[in-house]
Amino acid sequence: MSSIPCFPTLKEPGALTSSGPASPRPASAPCRPHLTARISGVDIYSVGVMFFELLTRFGSLLERALAFEELRDKGPPDGWKGDYEGDRELYDRMTSLKPADRPSVDEILMYIQQHRGSTADMGNRRL
């Protein structure tokens, strides 16, 4: 999986600076460069990467870049579960290597509504 060119590396110019290129590459699906038409399953991969980023605290841009390199090469760190039971499973489904195996937008929205639908729950979120 290390041959996937969709993630920035520490060697890329601007990869660690906020003034670097504003590219969606960190969240791009591995199959995106080879497609000419948009497929919702491909877009779900990017949602999965953003889901991981939203549920992970980074102390610095370097820590974030290293986490994305690990995500690209090995997947989420051992023990990463997200905030709620089922977050890791949802992440794994969203970033499946086969776009057809990824959940639909409706499935993701239903999951979010069930696990994060109430603003009263937001106070219980792990930071």
| Helical proportion, percent range | 25-40%
The ordered H/E elements are: HHHH
Strand tally is 0
Radius of gyration: 15 Å
Straight-line distance between termini: 30 Å
Which structural class best describes the helix and strand composition? mainly alpha
Average predicted local confidence, pLDDT:
73
Any idea what the CATH superfamily is called? Transferase(Phosphotransferase) domain 1
Binned strand content = under 5%
Largest sheet: none
Number of helices: 4
Which residues sit in consecutive blocks of at least 5 with pLDDT less than 50? Answer: 1-9, 12-25, 119-123
* Shape category: globular
What name does the CATH topology carry? Answer: Transferase(Phosphotransferase), domain 1
Q: What is the CATH C-level name?
A: Mainly Alpha
CATH architecture: Orthogonal Bundle
Q: Any idea how many domains?
A: 1
Oligomer: single chain
Biased composition (Low complexity): 18-30
InterPro entries: Kinase-like_dom_sf (IPR011009)
Organism: Aegilops tauschii subsp. strangulata
Protein name: Protein kinase domain-containing protein
Task: Write the SSE topology.
Layout: H1 40-54, H2 61-74, H3 87-94, H4 105-116
Overview in brief:
The chain is mainly α. 39% of the residues lie in helices and 0% in strands. It has a single domain, classed as Transferase(Phosphotransferase) domain 1 (Transferase(Phosphotransferase), domain 1), CATH 1.10.510.10.
